[in-house]
Each structure stands twice: as structure tokens, then as C-alpha cells.
Amino acid sequence: MKPATTLAKLCPALLVAGLLAVAPSASQAGPSFLGDADCDGSVNSIDAALILQHGAGLIDSLPCPELADANGDGLINALDAALVLQTGAGLIETRYAGSWKDGAAMPTARTEVTSAAVDGVIYVIGGFPAGSGNTNLVEAYDTATDTWSTKAPAPRPLDHTGAAAVDGKVYVVGGYISLAQGTISSSTYEYDPIANEWTERAPMPLARAAAATVALDGKIYVLGGVGPEPTVPLVYDPAADEWAELSPMSVEREHLAAAAADGKIYLIGGRRFVTQNVATAEVYDPASDTWAPLAPMPTARGGLAAAVLDNEVHVVGGEDLSPGGSTYPQHEVYDPVSDAWRPALPLPTPRHGLTAQTVGGRLYVIGGGPQPRFTVSNAVEIYDPPAP
Questions:
Q1: Is the pTM above the cut of 0.70?
Q2: 253 and 125 share one domain
Q3: N or C, which end of the chain has less CB nearby within 10 Å?
Q4: Nearest by Cα to 251 from 209, 288, 223, 214
């Protein structure tokens, strides 16, 4: 983050801070909110004063720099102080509620992983461990006990693969057999958590890697990605063990995210031409096999993850592969009813190639790379939304 460096830029906000500080300020109580620069669970004029002093160079650090960035733009400056003061005075409503906490670390740090959840257990599959090629490792996180276990390995090492769960089984589709050689898989594998066994199923008609994979109404959808005819989505019926092609999406892109809610699939972000992140969002209606555009995501990014929580799509993380690029802490929420986005409490550990699942009303974000390209993390960060 880059603090403002000149006092002149802070003068208007300092004046407002002085005016509001003479009277008791309202506060937003809770475990953690953007703007809570001192980590005390409230957002008020004290936080604004700290932000302004930091911006003026009067103090070197803040107790909660990750929360002081009230507008989520990567800077800590007078704009953040102004938002804090308006929130504290009750002039605007903050929606940066909820809290993040750490879960038990994944045993093997990995990036470019995939996952699926069955009966409260999240199965994290494949990816790149530190200092080696891709893997067929499967580690399972029990959300009820906050513990990990190792399961039967996948039939082959894969990265940038996809996974989804239907009727108590996990299905793993596509991915890179070898990223270095650009070898893409068309395979479909079924994992039975009870038997702890893998079975090969009908292959995809078009090989895919770095695609978005999501389950809806007993079927599995594979959208976008790298491979032949990348705008053509694929749908798999596990009961019939059959694949079919669907109406094409509007824009070719890979390293994108998808989530299903209310009978529709929301396809979000991604990148084109290796480094060009996009904010594109569109919705697919399986009933009519049609696509429609949505309000674009506020922060264009690829290498992100998405999951549905309380009928809204939560999108976290991502990667900027341009020279000098970084990973994203952004946590942005899409409301299908209003076709609108809002920022949410940022991801504590910015990363890409991560995976996200919702279980029991919480968002679980696992693994990924904290820096661009081939870095790894074993982080498990859990988001608790605010009480209704």
C-alpha cells in the first residue's frame, strides 16, 4: 500500500476530522470493518485521525493497515479518512462487515488447485506444490473439526483442473497434464469419498485447462479456459455419463471463476492473451441455453475464485501478470437481484490459483500463490458474514 506523502493533500480531511472530533462519534461495532485502523472493532474519528497522521508521515505504521484502506483501492490516504468519518457520523452505511479467521493450515502448500465439497468436507485436488511439478495429491479438510486428512491420489497429476460435486461424488475434469509442454487433458474422473476410490468416466469432447467448473441441478458445467473452441461451454451428466456442448459465451477467457445460484450460472472475470485481466461478468440460463451480460466486476482480475453465500456471489483473490504485477486481496460481492457489486472485507492473504467453497454459511478460501506465478500457500481463511 502507498500512503499519501504531502500534508497539503490532507488539509480538507483534517478540517473535517477536527469538526467531527469535537462531539462523540458514532461507531460501527463488530469484529472487523474496513476503516478500523486501530483494530478495536469500531469505525470512528480516532481511526480517521490515525489514517491522516499516517498519510502525513507523522506515524510510521498502523495497527491494522489492511483495514485502514477503507475503499479497497490499495492506498491509505485522505479518501479513506473521509469515508471513515462519514461512516462514524452515520452519513453512509458501511457494508464491510463480517470477519476472517484462520483455519488449520493445509498440510501441503499448493497453488493452481481445485476443490469440491461433500457433506462438510472440502477435497483439495492437484496443483503445484513448492519446488516441483504438478501433483495428484488429494487432501480433505473437515470443516466441522478443522482437521485435514490425505485421501487416495487422483489417477494422474494435474494442475489448473476443475472439480465439482454431484450426489455425494466428486468429479475432476480437464486440466494441464504438463503446463510446461502445454498438454491439456480431456479426462473425467469420479471420486467416491466413502469408498475412497477413483473411476474414469467419459472424456470431454474438448480438452480444457484453467476453466471454471460448477455443478447445478445434477450436472457439471465447464466454461471458458484454454483449449480448442474455448468459448464453447460443456455440460456433463454423471447419471448418463455423457457430455454435450452449449451455446457459446461472449468473450474467450481463462483463469476465470463461476458460481451457481437460483438455477443460473454466473461467470466472472478471468484473463485474455496471458496478461490481460478482464472484468467481464455474464449469466448462463440452462433452461433456455442463453447468455446475458451482467454489471462488470469492479476489479478486473484472473486467477480468482468464487462461491455463493446467502444467494450472492463472493469473488476473492486474483493475479496481475503484467510487469511488476501482484496478487489481489479484493473480496467483491455480486447481488443477482440488483445486478450490482459491492466491496467486502478483503482477503487477509492476497493470492491467486486459490480455491473457494461455502459450507455451513461460511466461505472457505484455501491454498494459492501469495505472489504472481509459481508461489505457494497452505492458508485456510474462513469468512463469517455479518449477522442478518
A1: yes
A2: yes
A3: C
A4: 223
